[in-house]
C-alpha cells in the first residue's frame, strides 16, 4: 500500500527548487502510508511524490513515480491490482516486455494501450495519477467502491492531488477555507460525504470515477456503477453456491503477497467466512487478530476464538481498556476532517496488533451493505410496509399532529411512538435519511448559531440520501437503500475508517467481499434472499452453512460496537468536560454552548439518548484544534 501527492506547476509559482521542497513535504506528510521508500518526479509542468509500502516485488525496481518504457507516461499508484498477473500474461502474449514484477508496471502499460478504458479491466483497489508528458494532461482515477482515497484541490488556475488531505497543505497556494454545508453534513452523517470535504475547493474524487485536467479546468467521468435492475431467477441454492465460489476466488486473489499476510477476525459471519476460505488456500496457519473490550456487552473475542480454533489459526487478541483517552486525539488526527464513527478506535488497535505480525490483512468489510446485515434494514423494511397501509394524504397531514401529541407525553414509549409517526409521515427516501441521521432537524435548530446557521439555513443534508435513492435503477425499496449505502455510508464511513486506521499503522487491508464481482453478483440476488423475514444476510449464511457453526452464523450481530456512553462518562469525562464547558474553540463557533452543556449534564445524570451527538461534537472539536483555523472565516489549516 502506498500514498501519492502532487501538483501542476504554473508560471505564477516559484521555480524548481521551491517546487521540489513542496512536493517532498507533501510526500513526507503521508510517510505512514509508505514507510519503505519515497521518491519525487518533476518536469516543467508537474511535481509528483510517492510513498511506498512494499507488498510485491520488494526490490527497488518497483519504486514510483514510475516512467513508462516510451518515456511518455509517469505513474504514481496507491493500491493493488489483484488480477495483474492475468493481465500481464495477456500483455506478454501481445509482445509487451516488463522490467519489474509489479502491478504498477502492468497498469502503466494498460493505460498506454487503452487510456481510461483500462479501468474496466482492473480488479483491485486503487487511486491512480498518470501524467502524459506529450499532451500535458493529468489523469486521476479511483477504484469502483472507493477503497482507496483520492483528494484534489482546484481553484484559481491551481491544481493539486493527494491520498490524504494533510498531504495537500504543504503546497502554499492551497487555501483551507471551511465549507459550511459540509459541517452540517458531518453532524448529520458523522462523516463528510463525497465529493465534498470539510474545505472549500478541495474535493474527493467519487468512487468509480476518473478525472482528467490540463490545469485549465477538469472533467470527471463515472466509469462504473452497480445495477439492481435485474434480479436473478436462479434458485436460492444455486445463488448460494455461486456466491460461495465467487467469494472463495476473491479471497484467493487477495492472498498474493511477498510479505506476511493475515486477517481481522471478529467472529461474525463476514470475517469468519473470509478466514475459513483463507485456511483452505494457505499452506500454514493463518494469522488472525481480534479486539475485545472489558464490557461483556461489546466483547466478541469469545466468538473470534471459537472460529480461530475451528480453523487452527495463529490467533492474537488485544483488549481496549484504559487506552482510549490517551490515544484519542492522536488517532483522530489521521482523518484530517471531522469523523465520528466511534469504531475507528478499536479499528486502530486491531490494525496496530496486526501490524506486529503481518503487513497485509484481509477483512470482512462489505458484507452488511451487500447482503442487508444492519439492523436498520429490518426496521426500515417494517416501517415501509406500515407506510404503504395508509394513504399519502393521511400520513402527511394527520401523522405529524399525532406525533406532536405523543411527544407531549415525555416517556420512553411515547417518544418511540412520536419517532415512528414522524418517520411514517415521510416518503421512503427521506425516512431512510432520518434512519441514518444523528442530528435531527429539531436538535440542529436548537444548537446551530452564527454564520454556520446563516450559511446553511436553506441547505438540507437529506438531499444526498434522496438523490442516491432515486438514482438506483430498481423499484425495490431494499435494493434502493442498499444502493444508497454503497454510494454513501460504505465509502464515506466504513472504508475511510479502515483505510486511515490501517495506514496509520502501515498495514494494508484487503476486502474480498468488496470485489466488484461480488458486489455485482449480490446486487442481482433478490431482496427476499438477503433480508428473509427477520433473518439478515440470509443468502450469505446459506452460502457458508457447511463451513461455519450454526451459533456463529445466527448469533446476534454486534457490529464492532464500542461502549461509547461509558467512555464519555468515565475514561473521556475530563476531556469532554474541557470541551463542553468551554466557550472558545470550534464547537462554540458553531453551537449554543448552553444547549451543549445541558445535553452533557443529562448524559452525566444517566440520560444517554444524546450519546452519539455528544461524541460527534467531541470529534469535531478535536479536529478543529488539530487542523482548523481559529474561526470559521479563517483561511489557514495546520498539518
Q: Compute the CA-based radius of gyration.
A: 24 Å
State which percent range the strand residues make up.
5-15%
Shape: globular
Structural class: alpha+beta
How does the major sheet shape up?
A: 6 strands, antiparallel
Mean of pLDDT: 90
Total helices: the number is 28
- How many strand segments? 17
Strand order of the largest sheet: 2-3-1-9-8-10
Percent range of helical residues: 40-55%
- The low-pLDDT segments are 629-639
Terminal Cα separation, in Å? 22 Å
Structural commentary:
α13 runs antiparallel to α14. The longest helix is centred in the middle third of the chain and has 18 residues, at 236-253. Strands 2-3-1-9-8-10 form a six-stranded antiparallel beta sheet, covered by helices on one side. A six-stranded antiparallel beta sheet has the order 4-5-6-7-11-12, covered by helices on one side. It is an alpha+beta fold. The chain is built from 28 helices and 17 strands.
Question: What distinguishing features does this structure have?
Answer:
six-stranded antiparallel sheet; globular; 639 residues; disordered C terminus; alpha+beta
